């Protein structure tokens, strides 16, 4: 299987996708079943040449034949190549079939939306996670915080921070760095600092206060 997968990967990287698919058929005919690495190589090839129909067909084929875990791993490939819209379409397909994505898959999608500037869609997915009983983790929160900050949506950052307080989410140094970055761009949101004593990571408050009192000349 390893040899076949390596050959398929090489063909895909060279843009020889027809040959790669034929080799996949030969592989299966010989009773050698491909794994997620094989499918990832094919998905990369389809994304590289913008063959989105084939990318969609590959996902649906895996999904319909019960290889749901292999199908979910393709979201990471699609995100890497900026094919977020098709990934979003396929994610909804999973939900329609009663197979809700886990937190890892959702984080991949949220990160993908944020990277292409579609932070509003990322936020919609975040809200759907909670509705469907998929609990966001610190990676989810940090990804959205960073997305809002990059999109200069400071009010959304503040709202998101309030959510973390309400849900008793333990923020980390990455969370604090994101807030520091936002405050450097827009000092009127100093109210964010008032939230930090309520976070489980209060030790960061001193560092942030010191970082901002001097350079931005905030007034208490």
Would you give an account of this structure?
- The chain has two domains: 1-99, Alpha Horseshoe (Serine Threonine Protein Phosphatase 5, Tetratricopeptide repeat), CATH 1.25.40; 104-220.
- Mean pLDDT is 76; it is low at 200-220.
- It contains 13 helices and no strands.
- The chain has 220 residues and is mainly α.
- It has helices at 2-13, 17-29, 36-48, 52-64, 68-80, 84-96, 103-115, 119-131, 138-150, 154-166, 173-185, 191-195, 203-213.
- 72% of the residues lie in helices and 0% in strands.
Features:
PPR_rpt; Serine Threonine Protein Phosphatase 5, Tetratricopeptide repeat; TPR-like_helical_dom_sf; elongated; 220 residues; Pentatricopeptide repeat-containing protein; 72% helix; mainly alpha; repeat
Summarize the structure.
By secondary structure, the chain is mainly α. It contains 13 helices and no strands.
SSE arrangement:
Blueprint: H1 2-13, H2 17-29, H3 36-48, H4 52-64, H5 68-80, H6 84-96, H7 103-115, H8 119-131, H9 138-150, H10 154-166, H11 173-185, H12 191-195, H13 203-213
Helix pairs in contact: 1-2, 1-3, 3-4, 3-5, 4-5, 5-7, 7-8, 7-9, 8-9, 9-10, 9-11, 11-13
Rounded to the nearest angstrom, the distance between the terminal CA atoms is: 65 Å
Put simply, the count of helices is 13
Question: What structural class do you assign from the helix and strand content?
Answer: mainly alpha
> What low-confidence regions span 5 or more consecutive residues with pLDDT below 50?
200-220
Rg for CA atoms: 22 Å
- Domains counted in the coordinates: how many? 2
Mean pLDDT, rounded to whole units? 76
Fraction of helical residues: over 70%
What gross morphology would you assign? elongated
H/E topology pattern:
HHHHHHHHHHHHH
Specify the biggest β-sheet: none
Tally of strands: 0
Strand content: under 5%
PPR repeats: 1-34, 35-69, 102-136, 137-171
Family: Belongs to the PPR family. P subfamily.
Keywords: Repeat
Organism: Cucumis melo var. makuwa
């Amino acid at each position: 299987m390893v040899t076949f997968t390596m050959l398929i990967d090489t063909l895909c990287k060279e843009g020889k996708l027809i040959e790669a698919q034929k080799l996949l058929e030969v592989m299966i005919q010989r009773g050698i079943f491909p794994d997620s690495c094989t499918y990832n190589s094919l998905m990369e090839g389809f994304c590289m040449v913008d063959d989105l129909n084939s990318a969609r067909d590959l996902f649906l084929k895996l999904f319909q034949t019960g290889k749901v875990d292999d199908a979910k791993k393709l979201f990471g490939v699609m995100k890497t190549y900026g094919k977020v819209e098709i990934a979003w379409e396929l994610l909804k397909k999973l939900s329609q079939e009663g197979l809700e994505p886990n937190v890892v898959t959702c984080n991949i999608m949220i990160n993908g939306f944020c990277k292409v500037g579609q932070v509003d869609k990322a936020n919609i997915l975040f809200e759907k996670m909670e509705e469907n009983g998929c609990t966001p983790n610190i990676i989810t929160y940090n990804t959205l915080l960073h997305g809002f900050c990059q999109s200069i949506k400071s009010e959304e950052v503040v709202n998101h921070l309030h959510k973390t307080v309400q849900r008793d989410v333990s923020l980390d140094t990455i969370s604090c760095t994101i807030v520091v970055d936002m405050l450097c761009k827009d000092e009127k949101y100093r109210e964010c600092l008032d939230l930090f004593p309520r976070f489980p990571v209060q030790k960061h408050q001193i560092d942030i206060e010191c970082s901002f009192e001097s350079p931005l000349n905030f007034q208490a």
